[in-house]
Amino acid sequence: MTKSKTLLSISCLMLLVMSCLAQGKVTLCPKEEKLPGPCEDIGGRYLCYIHFLGKYGLESKPQNCKCSPSGSDQKLCYCEIIC
């Protein structure tokens, strides 16, 4: 139940971000960070999204997030954020 609420909240937030981006031209900058823990099969990119959202704030509007394994028990998170 908690997972579905989290995914629903994230989906709503992503829709909000997309609608904001559609309204005006924005410059996006790629960001990468190595984080502890593996990428989960379901939700790995959402973990990266949440990390960048927490680090750079809501105004950064992270998007196109990807999670890829990087070494033992680490992941490489990639997102594009507003510069």
UniProtKB/TrEMBL annotation:
Keywords: Secreted, Signal. Residues 1-22 form the signal peptide. It comes from the Eukaryota. The keyword Ligase does not apply. GO terms for cellular component: extracellular region. Its main location: secreted. It is found in: Secreted. The keyword GTP-binding does not apply. One of its GO terms (biological process) is signal transduction. Belongs to the DEFL family. This is Uncharacterized protein. It comes from Manihot esculenta (Cassava). The lineage of its organism: Eukaryota, Viridiplantae, Streptophyta, Embryophyta, Tracheophyta.
